[in-house]
Amino acid sequence: MFDTIFKRTSYRGLYKDFPVPREDLTLILKAGLAAPSGCNKQSTSLIAIDDKEILKIIGELLNRKNIVSAPALILVLSQKIIANGGRCYYKQDFSAAVQNMLLAICELGYESCWLEGYVADNAESCAKITKLLGAPEDYELSVILPVGMADEELTYANKKSFEERAWFNGFRNS
Ligand SMILES: Cc1cc2nc3c(=O)[nH]c(=O)nc-3n(C[C@H](O)[C@H](O)[C@H](O)COP(=O)(O)O)c2cc1C
Predict the structure, then answer these.
(1) Ligand 1 in contact with 9 (CB < 6 A)?
(2) Given Cys at both, which of 42, 78, 100, 112 links 142, Cβ 3.0 to 4.6 Å?
(3) What residues contact residue 143 under an 8 Å CB cut-off, 6+ apart?
(4) Domain containing residue 82: CATH number
């Protein structure tokens, strides 16, 4: 588990033209659904896309290289379900599901990238995609995860040092 956590990285390059077997996609989806959710409301739903025709339509609407070349996409849908105390945990719910899936994707030898800012920037196209897939109006597309084998070098983002962000027994305690 720790190897996978530390080797995961956001991949924004092209994908190889190799399909992702249904078995692997199912395992990735199951990892997402196994995530915790606020008050167990399970507000996150998932659609895996591996149909070439649908991938082509999505690629035309979201023309970005790691979406267009990906042999599979996972669409993360959210319902704004109200939990205890009138709070709504849908963002936390889908974030936990996404992180589980990113780790599952990495563990199975594929790459991905948490595409959420990009989804928000392309809200109109994303609404068309959810409609095309038959999702009811209260299911909002929150994140897209491309899945596939990398065809370009992996890169690793710079992270602040441990000492800058984590301490024992007090803020900035060394
Ligand atoms: C909430 C959230 C939204 C993100 N949205 C995007 C996005 O729209 N496009 C993108 O290329 N990366 C996106 N990312 C990936 C981050 O840019 C990436 O995690 C960060 O640069 C650290 O790199 P790493 O994932 O390789 O550790 C997002 C990540 C998070 C957690």
Answers:
(1) yes
(2) 78
(3) 75, 76, 94, 98, 114, 115, 116, 119
(4) 3.40.109.10
